[in-house]
UniProtKB/TrEMBL annotation:
<feature type="binding site">
    <location>
        <position position="14"/>
    </location>
    <ligand>
        <name>ATP</name>
    </ligand>
</feature>
<dbReference type="GO" id="GO:0008776">
    <property type="term" value="F:acetate kinase activity"/>
</dbReference>
<keyword id="KW-0808">Transferase</keyword>
<dbReference type="GO" id="GO:0005524">
    <property type="term" value="F:ATP binding"/>
</dbReference>
<feature type="binding site">
    <location>
        <begin position="322"/>
        <end position="326"/>
    </location>
    <ligand>
        <name>ATP</name>
    </ligand>
</feature>
<dbReference type="GO" id="GO:0000287">
    <property type="term" value="F:magnesium ion binding"/>
</dbReference>
<feature type="binding site">
    <location>
        <begin position="199"/>
        <end position="203"/>
    </location>
    <ligand>
        <name>ATP</name>
    </ligand>
</feature>
<feature type="binding site">
    <location>
        <position position="84"/>
    </location>
    <ligand>
        <name>substrate</name>
    </ligand>
</feature>
<dbReference type="InterPro" id="IPR023865">
    <property type="entry name" value="Aliphatic_acid_kinase_CS"/>
</dbReference>
<feature type="binding site">
    <location>
        <position position="7"/>
    </location>
    <ligand>
        <name>Mg(2+)</name>
    </ligand>
</feature>
<feature type="binding site">
    <location>
        <begin position="274"/>
        <end position="276"/>
    </location>
    <ligand>
        <name>ATP</name>
    </ligand>
</feature>
<dbReference type="InterPro" id="IPR000890">
    <property type="entry name" value="Aliphatic_acid_kin_short-chain"/>
</dbReference>
<feature type="site" description="Transition state stabilizer">
    <location>
        <position position="173"/>
    </location>
</feature>
<dbReference type="GO" id="GO:0005737">
    <property type="term" value="C:cytoplasm"/>
</dbReference>
<keyword id="KW-0460">Magnesium</keyword>
<comment type="subunit">
    <text>Homodimer.</text>
</comment>
<keyword id="KW-0547">Nucleotide-binding</keyword>
Length: 389
């Protein structure tokens, strides 16, 4: 089955066209600057060179038309479309076929993720209307966390506030964490009942997974919570918002921008949100970069222990996403701060670069540590195949 996976943002639209059975990626790309001057499509076919096609993309409808036009060059029919949805709210315990009802849900919960859900809902509607013969599936990033125990998702706020505004932990990166569990389980079977999946990219979250079920995760109502990220501050005292507003004179919108776009590794290092630049700075003695790394290791190890505690133990730790898959130094930094839990990496194995899932801990490590490249598009395509198959 051939599936087109779409990941729409407010001014961008990423796509990947792949075969679920062979995992072959026929083509992938992204439409950038939709609705803004200078829009273009970056497109790659069968691992070939990336082409930049400068086209006017006044809206998402035009972008989708372009994507379908470009994909005509691929000699394979589109059998289904999978839509990544950032926030499924209290509605989606799993992926679902697009209907008037499910599309309505995506819009209803959009105030929780306004930058993403509105655009995603529009794109889903456009695809459904333009290509009525192709099945469309909604794959919410929160669905995997839906069944977290109540003691993990409930916020200790007044019940009527929680109920009226649906303020609770929803988590994010669920599709990636689900893929990591699936892969680790395929490789390790019953040796892993309790996994902490560590998705460390420009956005970062940990997820405690026991026998395939999410027990807790570090992101909360929104993807701002938890770990220190590229430009996001992660968990801080919530009163900071009130204080900055009342005493600092910052508006709520300014604080929102500050905490999401101007904080995290970027703010602490004063150099970059990219871990490669920060590692480089730290190596040449930049103290701010050294502190950014130290804080990243400290918080990641601390929250790892929190995730382990939610399962009363942990068998396997899996690193994934941009930092988790590529930075041996960051993996080592986190693992060093977990030596008290019996985590020990094999330095040689940790240094290996590969696209394959692999073990990087020593045989006597109390927790098996792995690197597992994530593949959210494939996971989405699998859901499409299951629901349409
Ligand atoms: P992601 O959001 O998963 O695409 O991850 C993006 C982040 O991963 C970048 O901002 C970098 O900090 C980090 N990253 C990507 N590639 C590498 C690499 N080769 N070495 C170290 N860090 C990397």
């Amino acid at each position: 089955m051939n599936v087109l996976v779409i990941n729409a943002g407010s001014s961008s639209l990423k796509y990947q066209f792949l075969n679920v059975d062979t995992r072959e990626v026929y083509a992938k790309g992204n439409c950038e600057r939709i609705g803004i001057d200078g829009s273009f499509v970056g497109h790659e076919e069968n691992g070939g060179p990336k082409q930049k096609l400068e086209v006017a993309l006044p809206d998402h409808r035009t972008a989708i038309k372009h994507v379908f036009e470009i994909l005509k060059a691929v000699d394979a029919p589109i059998d289904g479309i999978g839509h990544r949805v950032v926030q499924g709210g209290w509605y989606f315990p799993e992926s679902a076929l697009v209907t008037d009802e499910t599309l309505g849900w995506v819009r209803e919960v959009a105030p929780l993720a306004p930058l993403h859900n509105y655009a995603e809902a529009d794109v889903i509607e456009i695809c459904r209307d333009m290509f009525a013969q192709i099945g469309n599936v909604i794959v919410p990033d929160t669905a995997f966390h839906y069944h977290m125990p109540e003691h993990a998702w409930r916020y200790a706020l007044p019940r009527d506030v929680v109920d009226t505004y649906h303020v609770r932990k929803y988590g994010a990166h669920g599709t990636s964490h689900r893929f990591i569990w699936r892969t680790v389980h395929e490789l390790r079977g019953d040796k892993t009942h309790r996994l902490v999946s560590c998705h460390l990219g420009s956005g970062a979250s940990l997820c405690a997974i026991e026998d395939g079920k999410c027990m807790d995760t570090t992101m909360g109502l929104t993807p701002l919570d938890g770990l220190i990220m590229g430009t996001r501050c992660g968990t801080i005292d919530p009163s900071t918002v009130v204080y900055l507003n009342r005493v600092g004179g910052y508006s709520i919108d300014q604080i929102d921008t500050m905490m999401n776009k101007e904080s995290g590794l970027l703010a602490v290092s004063g150099r970059s949100s990219d871990s490669r630049d920060i590692e480089e700075g730290a190596h040449v003695g930049d103290e701010h970069c050294q502190m950014a790394l130290e804080m990243f290791y400290y918080r990641t190890a601390q929250l790892f222990a929190e995730m382990a505690s939610s399962m009363q133990g942990v068998d396997t730790m899996a690193f994934t996403a941009g930092i988790g898959e590529n930075s041996a130094e960051m993996r080592q930094g986190v693992a060093d701060r977990l030596a008290w839990m019996g985590v020990h990496l094999d330095a040689q194995k940790n240094a290996v670069r590969s696209d394959e899932p692999r073990v990087i801990s020593t045989p006597d490590s109390a927790i098996t540590c792995m690197v597992v490249p994530t593949n959210e598009e494939y996971m989405i395509a699998l859901d499409v195949a299951e629901l349409l198959g």
